């Protein structure tokens, strides 16, 4: 049996969303819309007979803050009654994107593990079941609500319902030619602090629920950007510095807004050109998760 497996998970920027609470984590999540990116996380997982050692690295350096990865491993071990003492597990996530800046890297870490580790242990796991594990890890950490299903399928994704990807329904805005994504990150924003705060929850849901219907009625890239910008303003999550960058990007592109939830501005364009200093430029991903 193989003892090593690698998977690419695209990252995901949410433009707007609505939080749907439920005491059952399989039914809790968000509806909303976002884009997946050709930049993302490549997770390489290795297992061998061992003594229960688990090492989790990011870019080949130990990452003690990676609670989402630890939680994903634990869910897998518990769910399939694996005796960890039989194995040594080594996981490395490679990513050029900042963590905690609205790129859905926490969901990508979880998916990177749920799409590799069970298979290496000989567990027969379906595509959607692997997604469910990542969703459960995200909900338990409050590090995300809806990135998982979008990253699995790729594209410009409209999430029509919330909860586990096993029951998830998505729609995609057609991408007829390559679209560049121009991003500029100036700082981090802890997802948990926003989605667990009642005042933020109220603003997010008041705006997000209305915008989703507007996108469904007119599902185009430019409308997605327009509605995302409205959400950033409505929710008052946008800082003055990010607003200034967005105003510049807006002039140069098809539209710009704030990556939810991070201190990141993003814009969509048919060209990679921008006057912004040191941006990260990639394209909209159309394929979703891919084994390497
Ligand atoms: N070096 C790190 N710093 C902060 N968080 C980290 C780090 N490495 C891994 N993590 C994990 O990533 C999560 C960040 O989640 P979140 O704020 O949602 O970021 P993102 O917007 O990138 O998904 C944390 O909950 C933590 O589990
Ligand atoms: C916006 C967010 C709740 C968090 O996204 P991130 O900070 O990138 O993990 C996302 O998971 C969503 O439900 O749309």
Automatic annotation (TrEMBL):
Ranges where the GHMP kinase N-terminal domain occurs: 70-155
Catalyzed reactions per annotation: (R)-pantoate + ATP = (R)-4-phosphopantoate + ADP + H(+)
Class of the enzyme per the UniProt entry, highest EC level: transferase
GO biological process annotation, one example: coenzyme A biosynthetic process
Alphabetized SUPFAM superfamilies for the sequence: Ribosomal protein S5 domain 2-like (SSF54211)
Gene3D superfamilies (alphabetical): 3.30.230.10
Keywords: ATP-binding, Coenzyme A biosynthesis, Kinase, Nucleotide-binding, Transferase
GO terms assigned for molecular function: ATP binding; kinase activity
Keyword Acyltransferase: no
The keyword Nucleotide-binding belongs to this UniProt entry's keyword annotation: yes
InterPro entries cross-referenced by the UniProt entry: GHMP_kinase_N_dom, PoK, Ribosomal_Su5_D2-typ_SF, Ribsml_uS5_D2-typ_fold_subgr
Domain of life: Archaea
Pathway(s) annotated for this protein in UniProt: Cofactor biosynthesis; coenzyme A biosynthesis
Enzyme Commission number(s) of this protein: 2.7.1.169
Family, per entry: Belongs to the GHMP kinase family. PoK subfamily.
Known function: Phosphorylates (R)-pantoate to form (R)-4-phosphopantoate in the CoA biosynthesis pathway.
Protein known as: Pantoate kinase
């Amino acid at each position: 049996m193989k003892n090593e497996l690698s998977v690419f998970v695209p990252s995901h920027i949410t433009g707007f969303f609505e939080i749907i609470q439920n005491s059952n984590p399989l039914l809790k999540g968000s509806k909303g819309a976002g884009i997946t990116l050709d930049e993302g996380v490549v997770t390489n997982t290795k297992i061998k007979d061992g003594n229960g050692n688990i090492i989790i690295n990011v870019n080949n350096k130990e990452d003690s803050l990676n609670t989402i990865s630890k939680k994903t491993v634990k869910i897998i071990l518990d769910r399939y009654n694996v005796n960890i003492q039989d194995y040594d597990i080594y996981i490395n996530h490679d990513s050029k994107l900042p963590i905690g800046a609205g790129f859905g890297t926490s969901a990508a870490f979880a998916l990177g593990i749920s799409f590799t580790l069970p298979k290496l242990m000989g567990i027969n796991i379906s595509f959607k079941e692997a997604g469910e594990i990542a969703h459960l890890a995200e909900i338990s950490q409050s590090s995300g609500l809806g990135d998982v299903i979008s990253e699995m399928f790729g594209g410009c994704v409209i999430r029509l319902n919330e909860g586990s990807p096993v029951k998830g329904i998505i729609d995609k805005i057609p991408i007829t030619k390559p679209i560049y994504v121009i991003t500029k990150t100036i700082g981090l924003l802890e997802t948990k602090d926003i989605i667990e705060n009642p005042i933020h929850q109220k603003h997010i849901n008041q705006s997000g629920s209305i915008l989703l219907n507007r996108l469904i009625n007119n599902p185009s890239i430019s409308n997605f950007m327009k509605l995302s910008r409205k959400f950033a303003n409505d929710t008052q999550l946008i800082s003055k510095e990010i607003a200034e960058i967005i105003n510049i990007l807006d002039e140069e592109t098809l539209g710009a807004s704030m990556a939810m939830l991070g201190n990141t501005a993003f814009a969509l364009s048919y060209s990679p050109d921008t006057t912004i200093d040191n941006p990260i430029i990639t394209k909209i991903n159309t394929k979703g998760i891919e084994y390497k």
